[in-house]
Structure formats: C-alpha cells, structure tokens
Amino acid sequence: MKVLVSCEYSGRVRDAFIRAGHDAISCDLLPSDSDFGPHYQGDVFDIINDGFDLMIAHPPCTRLANSGVRWLAERNLWDEMQEAAKFYLKLRSAPIAKKCIENPIMHKYAKELLGNTPRQVVQPWWFGEEMFKATGYELHGLPDLKPSNKLTPPKTGTEEHKAWSWVHRCPPSANRWKIRSITPNGIASAMAEQWG
Predict the structure, then answer these.
(1) Domain 2-195 classified CATH 3.40.50.620?
(2) pLDDT confidence of residue 25
(3) What residue spans of 44-155 are helical by DSSP H?
(4) What phi and psi, each to the nearest 5 degrees, are found at residue 109?
(5) Whether this model's pTM surpasses 0.85
(6) Distant-in-sequence, close-in-space partners of 109: CB < 8 Å, separation ≥ 6
C-alpha cells in the first residue's frame, strides 16, 4: 500500500510500515528523527492528494485534549482551538479511503466542533509497552486495532505504576510536548501488521 503518516516527525509509524513492505512516507513541519524512510518536511496538504491508500494522521492535540481544557479560558486559547479543529476536519475530509486520525481524549468543546464521532481508545500496554497513555483513533475504512501483546498493568500507588506513568509525569521542558507525542513502537508495529 501507499501510506501517508501525517504530522509525524519521529518516523516510528512510517518505519513500521516500510518494514512490513509498504511504500510509506511521513510528513511534518519538523525534520524527521529517523532517516530510515522518506520524509516530506512541509505542509501535509502539499502531498495529501498523491494517491495514498492509507493515512495515519497525528494532528496537534494540545488545544483539543481534555488534559488541557482548563487553559482555554485561563489563557484565552479559543482561537487556537478553532484552528486545531479546522485542521483536524481537513484531514478527516482527505480523499483517502482508509484513515486513522489520532488524538487523546477530547474535551467537550472539541467534540462540539468535530462531532462526537466514535473512536477506539487504546493503551500502549495492550501492545507490549510498559506505559499508560490513553489514545483515541477515529477510524475510517479500518477495523479497531486488536491488542497484540497485552501486559498486566501494575497496581495503582506502586513504584512500578509510577514508572508506567512516565508520560504524565514528564517535568516541564522545551521538548516535553515532543516526547509525549511519540507513538509507542508496539502500537506502530500493530498498525503496520493489522492495517497493512
């Protein structure tokens, strides 16, 4: 298949599809962290009509995620939320038959703008990653991802539970958003195996 991985600088999903034998390219405004496969640094809408069979999109979620809803009013970020929703809707309407649009749990304002469309919510530990991070996938023409290597999560309050919660416990830094946005390898591999 010809696969577009939109808004991905890490190369993880792209590389998983290439390893599975597909023609995949990533696209982001940032350069790719991986030189394993092709990367278009620029606007995804420059290449979105190039005949892709599948798109996996990771649009910016900061203004749409429930985790940051309190900042909308406190910092007057309503216009940024509107722009994020417009970008999301533009990806949704792309002329690609099979689409996965990733976003974490959305707040009520985002749901009002985007519609409360069904989405699958997965956890990295379903795919062999010792990590908690609920992530939603709006799927078009694709089946739900099936857990491929489900682990048993540690009990709440234990040191191991804290270790698995590292993404939520990242200290503030210039790269915090970047670290938290990377798709876990187990999920990337499951996407390539099940959707490829």
Answers:
(1) no
(2) 98
(3) 70-74, 78-92, 108-114
(4) -70, -40
(5) yes
(6) 69, 72, 81
